[in-house]
C-alpha cells in the first residue's frame, strides 16, 4: 500500500532525526559539563537548546516508532478476563479515543506554534525562535495519529500497534 510505505518512510526519517537529536544532546551536555567544571566556561545556550529543542525532538519525533513497537502503557488485568466480543468492542473504543486525543493534541500544539511565531518568542539568552519546537511536537503527534488511524482496521485482527506487547513490532 502506497500510504503505508509513505508512513514507513516518514517514521524512519523522524526516528533518524530523533536519534541525531539524542546524540547532539549527549555531546552538548558533555561539552557543557566539561566546560563548566574543567575550564569554568559553560556553553551559554546549552541548557536552552537541550530542553527546548533537542529533548523535544528526541521524544516527539520518536513517538511514531514507539507506537509501532508497542511501547504503550496498558492496564490489561480486567480486559484480559473479558470474552472476545466484549474485548473487541473495548479495543475499538480505546483505539478511537486514542486517535481523537492525539488529533486534539496535534491541533493544540500547532495552534501554540502559530501563536509563538506571531509573538516572536525567543530564548532569554539568545535570539532563537521557540515556535519550531512546538512544530516538532505537532509533526510527531500528527504522524502517530495517522498511524493509529490506519491501524483502526487492524484492531479486529488483533494487530493494532496500540495493543502490541512492548518490544514487538511490525
Describe the protein in words.
It is a single chain. The protein has helices at residues 2-38, 46-60, 63-68, 84-119, 131-151. Helix content is 68%, strand content 0%. Helix 1 (2-38) runs antiparallel to helix 2, helix 1 (2-38) runs antiparallel to helix 5 (131-151) and helix 2 (46-60) packs parallel to helix 5. With 170 residues, the protein is an all-alpha fold. The relative contact order is 0.16. The longest helix has 37 residues, at 2-38. The chain starts with a helix and ends in a 19-residue tail after the last helix. The mean pLDDT is 87. The protein has one domain (2-163).
Q: Biggest sheet, in brief?
A: none
Quaternary: single chain
Mean pLDDT: 87
Number of domains as seen in the coordinates:
1
Approximately how much beta-strand content do the residues carry? under 5%
Give the structural class: mainly alpha
Share of helical residues: 55-70%
Spatial gap, N to C terminus: 15 Å
Which radius of gyration do the C-alpha atoms yield? 19 Å
Amino acid at each position: 500500500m502506497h500510504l503505508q510505505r509513505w508512513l514507513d518512510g516518514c517514521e524512519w526519517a523522524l526516528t533518524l532525526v530523533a536519534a541525531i537529536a539524542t546524540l547532539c544532546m549527549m555531546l552538548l551536555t558533555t561539552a557543557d559539563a566539561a566546560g563548566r567544571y574543567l575550564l569554568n566556561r559553560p556553553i551559554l545556550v546549552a541548557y536552552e537548546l537541550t530542553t527546548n529543542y533537542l529533548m523535544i525532538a528526541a521524544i516527539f519525533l520518536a513517538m511514531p516508532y514507539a507506537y509501532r513497537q508497542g511501547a504503550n502503557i496498558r492496564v490489561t488485568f480486567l480486559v484480559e478476563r473479558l470474552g472476545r466480543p466484549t474485548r473487541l468492542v473495548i479495543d475499538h473504543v480505546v483505539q478511537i479515543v486514542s486517535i481523537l486525543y492525539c488529533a486534539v493534541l496535534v491541533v493544540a500544539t500547532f495552534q501554540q506554534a502559530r501563536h509563538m511565531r506571531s509573538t516572536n518568542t525567543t530564548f532569554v539568552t539568545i535570539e532563537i525562535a521557540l515556535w519550531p519546537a512546538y512544530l516538532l511536537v505537532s509533526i510527531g503527534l500528527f504522524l502517530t495519529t495517522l498511524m493509529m488511524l490506519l491501524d483502526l482496521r487492524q484492531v479486529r485482527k488483533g494487530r493494532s500497534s496500540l495493543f502490541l506487547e512492548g518490544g514487538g513490532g511490525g
